[in-house]
């Protein structure tokens, strides 16, 4: 750093040393690039999380430009020490802008109204960015002729904008991802602040600002280092549709998304239903069973805390009572007490004809002594050893004990097309538990070709009595469900036992192959 | 007790036919055996306020959990009394081509074990990646060698390695293995692969709480060659386990003899009087000493205690014991990790601990929610004396820190999930089968007693295992029945 003479400015303040001018001009470029990047980040994020990109982009850009205007206007209130103020503005932008993407992703599932958080942040960053250029022009005004100055600054400003707008879609988003991009540009902002502080250290007391700048740098570097983990935490990055509800219970992560009229439930990232076609799934799950039981008075549902299977069952006036066993009380609460969701299951969970039991079905069936005319098993797919236990011979033996002599049960049993071995493992296992079985399948667009396995103590008949109000099943289409084309046809499959967990292993293999 | 500081008895002398001192697996097995023969005139005195000894268990709002012993491998065919008992307890549910069928819910569910190896969990306990050709060759050779020992029979027609060990062949070619340490034997046989040795060290510490340098080669080999689990299908090499570990078995045994058990009694003197014995026991409940006259006694306590309380009967010997620390860690969500999913037994190749077992593995199908992890550490590097000094001086907080650090090193995902850590210290946890233990005179004398005092403890086998404790209890009880001329049909 050279020993440039320090001249007193008009306002009695000290003008910048020569080398500072260079740093400052470079900062225009950096600052301009960063400013635009944050704007693009906010716009992209908003359209990503809230959908409707045209609206999101124009409102974000509008707000941002307006906020910049506010910043420019506010700059008049900065009466002295422009450089110090500029440095502090840079540190603040670095912190806010740098963390903006990560923060918004993380905040999304947590805050009630995401828009408030989003626009508050856009406003704050916009105001700060709006302060930058006016301050820089004032700092540099002693170095350059006014004409040259404005031309220089604006040139760099527009070049920066070009750089940003090209980098963003071509390199940053695809290569770095939004979260990392935020941190990288935050570092650039704070880099400008630090460079200025170093240049100024002879004339100013920069200690405190330097500490602040270093703290921000450290936080950004940490964020950058843990960007992958942040990305995972900020699960919204995972879904293709806007997330409208997300909550962790001790047992699972519940996420609801909505895109247009389509509401979807995910448990631990696995799709459970889409309102577009869940009726297909639930009619196929429930009616082939109810239609084969002469008097389904007592019905047991294992899993299915969303109440959708219960909705179908309760439509049957012959059903006197439904016992629903689901592990997670949070699911039940959500689907019983949220009007929108309770509407989906027609209030089934609040029905006086239904008893909700929050228990681990694996233990519950062993202690239960009641008899059920129909049993509907709707567990999550056997993706884990713990869940795999709910598809074992030992488990089905206990369930069979609860099934009335002339009762019928059914088990959701994954896709016979994608995972035929896994699908037929369920049948083998039910047979090993002493039941007769019949497999059937239905086409549910959001899942694909989906399989179920019916089981009973006695042979299962063809004859089925279906109610008239169904949207998917008719006597003819029901009959067709039992027909398996060669690519799904029965094949040898092992019995899934507690000690071999054959199903979990084949499920992982077959779906792994399918998903690549 | 050590200084005989208990007060002398004041009340009248009590009478009973048989007195069992000690309510661990061996004492309870003795009581169970007497009850099986329809013999009811016995009392069991236990020092602690609960029976079970090293197989005791605890429980909190989340789950039951073991404080010590946590599993029983499917027993060998020769463990007849044990089969009889498991059938009675509903653990053996049937027969298939003559072989017992075990209740699948009580056999350890898949996934049984996983190893954290080079930052990733894998199934099984022997590393599967980054093995040199030499490692593979030695592992294969070791496995084949052990299979040969498992099948081997001595000149007397008995299996070279049996479980209970008392039924093993006395053929000198196998007994000779007891003259050297397992480590020496491994060296001599060219087993030097560090991965193989680390695995074998794990096994020795798991079963005996001791280093391969300190256990007899006979015992080291017994671990691999002694088990020929007898079960239908392929269940022979499986294990039985429950949330409370072997607490399940001792609980069921105790339930069959409830009226006979008196807890909170320290037996501190056993004297010969006429043809029988008088047993002095301090009743901690009323702080008074009782005197009980019995026609026969079964001392089902560690031999170092028996030596002191019954010097007239118990030969003084050189028994040494490995200290252990067991911690029960309540977590609000289950551990995860890269690679193989959570298993029942989870071990890290990089840790000095033996890892942890998951209490809810058998009972729960939830892939979330709270659970209890039982963490094990044998203090085998130090001499037993040094180790016991550590146990006496290290604070609870210090142990909790050790446990927490070790767990978080294995499962960083547990950060913030640990709700409490209960630490249990076992000063004399497991008898050490040191070289020469097979011919240890005091051990042999204890097994050859002719009454009126018999010994029943896993110490008599030198192998601290459920099967051994059970066998010793049953054998002692049958000796007592014979002595009292009570009719019975032997189960051994
Ligand atoms: C941490 C740990 C883990 C283990 N894990 C396993 C396992 O997984 N599987 C396995 O098979 N084995 C395991 N073991 C070995 C276990 O020790 C044996 O399986 C078995 O429980 C031993 O029973 P025991 O009756 O021989 O001895 P103990 O359990 O020692 O029983 C002796 C009993 O006598 C009582 N007693 C002592 N002195 C007196 C006195 N003066 N008066 C009255 N009563 C007295 C004691 O309180 C105790 O209850 C483990 C041991 C430990 C310590």
From TrEMBL, chain A:
Chain sites annotated for binding S-methyl-5'-thioadenosine? 252, 326, 360-361
Keyword set includes Cell membrane: yes
Q: How would you describe this protein's topology in the membrane?
A: Multi-pass membrane protein
Q: Which domain of life is it from?
A: Bacteria
Q: Where is the active site?
A: 378
Tell me its EC number(s), please.
Answer: 2.5.1.16
Q: Which segments cross the bilayer?
A: 20-41, 53-74, 86-110, 116-137, 149-172, 178-198, 210-227
**Pfam families attached here?**
Spermine_synth
Identify the keywords attached in UniProt to this record, alphabetized: Cell membrane, Ligase, Membrane, Polyamine biosynthesis, Spermidine biosynthesis, Transferase, Transmembrane, Transmembrane helix
Binding site residues for spermidine:
282, 306
Subunit structure as annotated in this protein's UniProt entry:
Homodimer or homotetramer.
What does this protein do, in the record's words? Answer: Catalyzes the irreversible transfer of a propylamine group from the amino donor S-adenosylmethioninamine (decarboxy-AdoMet) to putrescine (1,4-diaminobutane) to yield spermidine.
The name under which this protein is listed is Polyamine aminopropyltransferase
Which species expresses this protein natively?
Novosphingobium jiangmenense
Lineage, broadest ranks: Bacteria, Pseudomonadati, Pseudomonadota, Alphaproteobacteria, Sphingomonadales
Q: What gene does this protein come from?
A: speE
